[in-house]
Amino acid sequence: MGKLDGKVALITGAARGQGRSHAIRLAEEGADIIAVDICKQIDSVPYPLSSPADLAQTVKEIEALDRRIVAKQGDVRDIGALTEIVDGAVAELGPVDIILGNAGIIQHGAERPDEVQTFRDVLEVNLFGVWNTVQVGVRSMIEAGRGGAIVLTSSTQGLSGAGGTGTGAGDGYVAAKHGVVGLMRTFTNWLAPHSIRVNTVHPTGVHTDMVVNPVFEKFLGDNPHLGAALQNLLPVPMIEPIDVSNAIAWLVSDDARYVTGVTLPVDAGFMAK
User: Fold this and answer.
1) Which stretches does DSSP call E strand in the chain?
2) 47 is catalytic
3) Is residue 248 a contact partner of residue 206, using CB atoms and an 8 Å limit?
4) I need a surface site. Which of 85, 173, 209, 224 has the fewest CB within 10 A?
5) What is the pLDDT of residues 209-246, one digit of tens each?
6) Nearest to 203 by CA among 238, 179, 172, 170
7) CA gap 264, 242 in Å, rounded
8) CA-to-CA distance for 99 and 262, rounded, in angstroms?
9) What is the CB-side half-sphere exposure of residue 231 using CA atoms within 13 A?
10) What are φ and ψ of residue 147, in 5° steps?
11) DSSP character at residue 271
12) Could you read off the pLDDT of 122-168 as tens digits, one per residue?
């Protein structure tokens, strides 16, 4: 038996990277999955975003664990589309028990960026998209009346201003990730009477396509002072998605049944520097 048997988890950004890892880890513990990902490009993002093939691979891996999954392409910025996806999935799988607001972008390294549009895009995906996800997903959780758990993905840069660049990309990312903490704290108070717990995780750099790509690698090469500012305390350049997934699997389980309102670093000591 798994720790999440009979649970349904809504996960955004689930086509690859951390989102896919979280989906697999929760499915290993018995959860069924509602997987949402944009699977198309946003103009201000300089590296390739996920594809329908990536989302199909997530489906394949969840089904290999003998768990159910509803996977749909959807933009977290579009609350109408997100509502339609989640309502359809709830009708098929049952009420949502777990929400992971994971979808996010970075835009460092873009050539000749429109700074205003860049700032707007990262706020809309990384902050507004998290608000949309919780607003849409929590309705069936409240109606079911059996409590639940929400984990929002922030960043070490949601606790620190390290690596600020004075650009739309840098300022927007840090502001959005700090804003996610604000959402977590207000959601914690709003949802506690319903026995719904809300926490944030704060990864350091994670080995995913978001940061392991030629554009971001060139950006760090061109700005070595930023690379130095983003170094971990433990002697590892970055962590793996499973490291974050394991923390989340604990947070959403009954092992953490009284843990709420917490900002949990998974950061190889980054915040202890």
Assistant:
1) 8-12, 32-37, 69-73, 98-101, 148-153, 196-203, 263-266
2) no
3) no
4) 224
5) 999 999 988 888 888 877 777 789 999 999 999 999 99
6) 238
7) 15
8) 16
9) 9
10) 75, -165
11) G
12) 999 999 999 999 999 999 999 999 999 999 999 999 999 876 678 89
